[in-house]
Write a structure and sequence with these properties.
This protein has 317 residues and is α+β, with helices and mostly antiparallel strands. Helices cover 38% and strands 24% of the residues. It starts with a helix and ends with a helix.
Length: 317
């Protein structure tokens, strides 16, 4: 009774109506945003803008105005103490559970009372783990000025005391028992790098971070004596390499999660590079493959040109 073409068209319309009505239950206008909003997913708050005016190449921010370890929005603007990722470094997670959460509670407890700037400064001096992680700013209210932590150790500092420990448990426990601005907690597996050395902090010594990138850090160092420098960067031996004046040198783990380096007297350039072996090998294989492909193409083109020349010579004969 209905022409086949009309039947097919009608069924097509009914199917589309059915699919659209059902699909929109799961995917609708709420699931899409404008391109401009995608390019700028977060709007900087007053606290963010204040911190962004600090042009120091490397410091960290603690955001207490959101869920510190379940919200990554702070990391959009700053190098954050918190944030979230499904894959975590176990040692940093140990530090979070063992110290950082307690220090955050300590800060929150003080801020709930009527406090002065002097009391806030005094409070920060006691937060040693946050200080060794170079936590320079704390956001309490995103629409207010952040708290400035004057006690943060900076991105690198000198120590004159080494506390040797025999295990990971001893290492993490020692963080709460020592002045981390003067002492480095070091596992005995790294003893060969500091045996027989006597480190004395000198007021004329200095170390400055000149440039920062996620895979490359450059420092200028000056000291009349050999020094042990602790860097507020996570120790990760599987790819991070240390160089002094361009020469590859060993470095060690300090304070359970950070890296440290013995540097001789004088003026030196210190560099940390992330150079994972798998990437280096892969790059060489990729280069060799590309070079081989180019050679094959050149060879193929050469044979074609040679064949064309041979044909023309035969035709002329």
């Amino acid at each position: 009774k209905i022409k086949r073409s009309w039947l097919i068209a009608g069924l097509g319309v009914l199917i589309i109506i059915d699919m659209v009505s059902v699909n929109r239950r799961y995917l609708n206008n709420d699931n899409f945003i404008r391109a401009k909003q995608f390019d700028v997913p977060f709007t900087a708050s007053a606290a963010d803008n204040y911190i962004l005016n600090d042009h120091n190449p490397d410091f960290r921010v603690l955001d207490l105005s959101s869920s510190t370890f379940n919200d990554a929005s702070c990391s959009y603007f700053h190098k954050s103490i918190g944030g979230y990722h499904g894959a975590k470094l176990q040692r940093y997670q140990d530090i979070i559970e063992g110290y950082i959460q307690g220090e955050i509670q300590s800060i929150a407890s003080v801020l709930t009372k009527g406090v002065t700037l002097q009391m806030i400064d005094s409070m920060f001096t006691k937060q040693q783990v946050l200080n060794m992680l170079n936590t320079k700013y704390v956001i309490v209210n995103p629409e207010a000025m952040p708290l400035l932590n004057k006690s943060a150790f900076g991105n690198a500092w000198f120590v004159n005391n080494v506390v040797m420990v025999n295990s990971a448990d001893e290492e993490i426990n020692a963080l709460g028992k020592n002045n981390l601005q003067n002492a480095a907690i070091v596992d005995t597996r790294f003893a060969s790098q500091i045996e027989g050395k006597n480190f004395i902090k000198d007021s004329t010594s200095s170390i400055v971070l000149n440039s920062y990138a996620p895979n490359n850090l450059m420092y200028s160092y000056k000291s009349p004596t050999e020094q042990l420098v602790v860097f507020s960067e996570i120790y990760y031996s599987k790819g991070w390499h240390a160089y002094v004046d361009g020469y590859h040198v060993p470095y060690l783990r300090a304070n359970y999660v950070l890296r440290a380096l013995t540097v001789p007297a004088g003026e030196h350039e210190i560099e940390f590079k992330f150079e994972p072996r798998i990437w280096v090998v892969g790059e060489r294989i990729s280069f060799a493959g590309s070079l081989l492909l180019i050679l094959l193409l050149i060879t193929g083109i050469g044979f074609e040109i040679k064949n064309l020349i041979t044909k023309r010579e035969n035709n002329n004969v």
